[in-house]
UniProtKB/TrEMBL annotation:
Membrane-crossing segments per the record: 784-810
InterPro entries: Adhesion/Biosynth-related (IPR050904), FAS1_dom_sf (IPR036378), FAS1_domain (IPR000782)
Keyword Lipoprotein: no
Source taxon at top rank: Eukaryota
This protein's name: FAS1 domain-containing protein
Ranges of residues in domain FAS1: 35-167, 170-302, 310-450, 461-605, 610-772
Gene3D superfamilies associated with the record: FAS1 domain (2.30.180.10)
Record-linked Pfam families: Fasciclin
Record's keyword annotation contains Protein transport: no
Record keywords: Membrane, Transmembrane, Transmembrane helix
Length: 825
């Protein structure tokens, strides 16, 4: 028993002694060889001579010797080939202050290094290939990475891994964006916004291949790409940047929020296992390392949730279409409020880009009105536009403060095969304002404004007097305007409607037009011209249906009537509301001018106060012989001087050329016969309802519309003459056009009516090409030409028949004489 206890005591003593010796290190030299330090390995291994040289050069020997437990990714000598300069921080970027074996270098692990910049510890990223399980370290950017070629070289103060490249010190955020091929677009917009990411300190960028994706339209992108849009572009980008450093591992499991540099909205972070989303967008690449931050790549861009983030107003939209000169003109002339949505009303802007803007020919005193002409009152989408519309603009120009200039709209059909896939032209065809066509899709900004980019700037309507001469069909009216002196009044008037009669309309006046254009009729002509100018604006496009009483420049009323058939104007002399012999119709409407609007009409209108007698009409031209005949017959006061309220007389006035064809010298001494000749040419009634167009144009007449309610046809209408009740005059319409007049029952040829003129009394003058002769004088004068012609033709026919009978008898006689007999005989 004692022996066993003694043996146990000795064994316990031995173990205690051996343990104390081992713990004191007395046996280390006997059983272990001392391991070299990281520094010893570098200076003794020929593979690292260049690394050792750089460590000594940058005075890092003492720092490396002081490492108690570290990891060094040691570049071999070949890694320094073609390296011109190595920095101190670049060497320290390869040194990790903890010892990490290769088995602990998992894919995506971040390793803090001994390198710092602006108090930011620089980090290495570990990548492991999926197949070969090679270990790669670097910044996460393809161009800055090194492969571990020998791992886990143990040192007394850590572990060394040999790498094949010398890693560059991490670049700044700005440069790092440019190094990654997936972030070229993001880098472009960062440069465009002039974001100084080089000086950022600890930023995190959530970038994507496309900065905007399909979340912004082309106009918004064009605006952000403009010089004026750089501020908003920076805001968009700064919404994707946080002012703190967040490596993927720093993002906590679950939901969290982080603030952005822009600051208006926080970013929603969701970490669920290995999946990280930012504002619901998946992170597809993490931890692209830079010296002053980190970059994470998202599947798509994260723009602000607030759809009105950009606040795209008219000013910004105009910048998008490069209409900066247009903006400056608006600002210079006090119209900038329209571009900033400060107006209460909705508007449509017609905007030419810089290369289409031409303001050089606009007088300085009209510049504001010209700019306002590009602003339409009201917001018109393409679907709201109709061909022929006249839209109100903000420009008053010379119309006066109560009226606004109009601009015409033209919408025409287009072939989609020509315009390809341009949605505007396929869906709404071609749109034109004035003479300028729309070149791009309209841009809607907010609820108040829509913008149409134009191919060229608009032109203000020219003044009324300059618009008239370019219409050749108005040459007679233009001559009347200046001849009467009414041009000055028209030019000074503001906000007027001018109903300009065409040349054909003046032709319908016939003798009256000739009278008005005489020098001594200047005052009458002035009243007629001014009677066609109304002191208000009546656009056919927008005038309501029904009758309108309008005041003219001679302070009298004229009636306008808008119907489904068009717009009509009625002065004095119309038998009723359908009397198209007098009532004018607008045949060309809405010719815009600076001080009003022009309509071309097909009838000249006469004011009530215009006094026109038959004498005035006969004095006009070519009927002086009849005028002298009437004066010799003492019918002057009764027939020639009648005006309003007097008995109307219609005079059939042979032209002076017609009188030259007949000898009336024998009548000069016989007043009674002279009176008969004169009275024969007078109808004691109002002017017959003849179509002046028929008289003027005859068979080639093509006015497009015949006067309604005509009573005189091809069979003729009878009228009494002043000569006697038994002497009846017949006026009939000719088959070839025009009218003729003859004495009923007379053998005399009918006379053609070649011109017409209406007097104030309701009567007038019908100019004819032949002098009418009383029946008894016609008999003395012998047979009419057509009677003589019939007699001659009858005589010739009789002689022909006799000759044929004689020839036939002679042939019969000869056959009998020769002994030939017909079998029938």
């Amino acid at each position: 028993m004692f022996k066993k206890n003694w043996i146990s005591f000795l064994f316990f003593f031995y173990l205690t002694y051996i343990t104390s010796i081992c713990s004191a290190g007395y046996l280390d030299g006997l059983f272990y060889k001392e391991r070299p330090s990281l520094f010893d390995i570098i200076v003794t291994d020929k593979r690292f001579t260049k690394l050792a040289s750089e460590i000594e050069k940058h005075d890092l020997t003492s720092q490396l010797k002081k490492v108690k437990a570290g990891t060094l990714f040691a570049p071999v000598n070949k890694a320094f080939d073609d390296i011109e300069q190595v920095t101190r921080e670049q060497i320290l970027y390869h040194l990790i202050p903890v010892a990490i074996k290769s088995g602990e270098l998992w894919d995506g692990r971040l390793l803090g290094t001994e390198a710092y910049q602006d108090d930011i510890q620089q980090v290495l990223k570990v990548t492991k290939t999926s197949v070969m399980r090679d270990i790669i370290v670097g910044t996460g950017v393809e161009s800055n990475r090194a492969n571990v070629i020998e791992a886990d070289i143990d040192a007394s103060n850590g572990v060394l891994h040999t790498v094949d490249r010398l890693l560059s010190f991490p670049a700044d955020l700005d440069t790092t964006l440019g190094l990654d091929k997936d972030l070229q677009d993001f880098n472009h917009w960062v440069d465009r916004a002039s974001l100084n990411l080089k000086r950022a300190k600890g930023y995190t960028i959530f970038a994507s291949k496309s900065v905007f994706g399909d979340q912004l339209n082309d106009v918004e992108k064009d605006y952000l790409d403009s010089n004026e849009g750089r501020h908003d572009l920076a805001r968009v980008l700064n919404h994707q940047i946080t002012p703190k450093l967040f490596y993927s591992g720093d993002l906590k499991e679950g939901e969290s929020k982080i603030k952005t540099v822009e600051g208006s909205e926080d970013l929603d972070i969701l970490v669920k296992g290995d999946t990280i989303t930012v504002n619901g967008v998946k992170m597809v690449k993490s931890n692209l390392l830079s010296s002053n931050g980190v970059i994470h790549v998202l599947e798509s861009p994260i723009l602000p949730k607030n759809k009105d983030f950009l606040k795209l107003n008219a000013r910004k939209a105009l910048n998008a279409i490069h209409a900066t000169r247009f903006i400056k003109l608006f600002d210079d002339h006090g119209l900038g409020g329209y571009l900033d949505d400060e107006q209460d009303e909705q508007i449509t802007l017609l905007a030419p880009p810089n290369d289409a803007l031409d303001e050089g020919n606009v007088p300085s005193n009209q510049m504001k009105a010209w700019l306002e002409y590009h602003i339409i009152r009201g917001r018109y989408r393409p679907s709201d536009l109709v061909n022929g519309q006249l839209l109100e603009t903000e420009s008053h120009n010379d119309l006066g403060e109560t009226h606004h200039q109009r601009i015409p709209v033209t919408v025409t059909e287009q072939d989609p095969n020509i315009y390809g896939n341009n949605r505007l032209f396929i869906e709404k065809q071609s749109i034109q304002f004035g003479k300028s066509r729309v070149i791009k899709d309209p841009i809607e900004t907010g609820e108040k404004t829509i913008i149409y980019p134009l191919a060229r700037s608009l032109s203000l309507p020219r003044d009324l007097l300059s618009r008239l001469p370019v219409n050749l069909e108005l040459s007679t009216f233009v001559a009347s305007l200046y001849a009467s002196g009414a041009d000055e009044t028209i030019e000074r008037s503001h906000g007027i409607t001018l109903f300009a009669p065409s040349n054909e309309a003046f032709g319908r006046l016939g003798l009256l037009a000739k009278h008005l254009l005489q020098l001594d009729s200047k005052e009458k002509l002035e009243r007629v011209v001014k009677y066609h100018a109304v002191r208000d604006l009546y656009y056919e496009n927008s005038t309501e249906e029904g009758e309108h009483q309008a005041e003219t420049l001679i302070n009298t009323q004229i009636t306008l009537n808008k119907t489904q058939d068009g717009m009509f104007i009625r002065g004095s002399g119309a038998a009723d509301g359908a009397d198209r012999a007098v009532i004018g119709k607008v045949v060309k409407s809405d010719i815009l001018s600076s001080n009003g609007v022009i309509h071309i009409i097909d009838r000249v209108q006469l004011p009530d106060a215009l006094k026109i007698s038959n004498r005035d009409l006969l004095s006009a031209e070519g009927t002086s012989n009849l005028l002298a005949l009437l004066e010799h017959s003492h019918l002057t006061q009764k027939v020639l001087e009648g005006i309003d309220g007097d008995q109307p007389y219609t005079i059939l006035a042979p032209s002076d050329r017609a009188f030259a064809k007949i000898n009336l010298a024998h009548l000069k001494g016989d007043p009674e016969k002279l009176a008969k000749f004169a009275k024969l040419h007078i109808i004691p009634l109002a002017l017959p309802p003849l179509d002046a167009g028929e008289i003027k144009h005859r068979w080639w007449f093509s006015s497009g519309e015949e006067d309604q309610g005509r009573e005189i046809g091809y069979t003729g209408t009878e009228f009494p003459s002043l000569l006697s009740k038994d002497t009846v005059l017949v006026i009939s319409k000719n088959v070839g056009g025009g009218y003729s007049v003859k004495i009923k029952g007379s053998s005399q040829d009918s006379a053609e009516i070649v011109d017409i003129g209406r007097s104030s009394s309701g009567g007038g003058v019908l100019e004819i090409d032949r002098v009418l002769v009383p029946p008894e004088e016609a008999q003395k004068a012998g047979l009419a030409w057509w009677q003589i012609t019939l007699i001659v033709l009858g005589s010739l026919l009789g002689f022909a028949i006799l000759a044929w009978v004689a020839y036939y008898m002679w042939q019969w006689y000869q056959s009998r004489r020769g002994g030939y007999h017909s079998l029938g005989d």
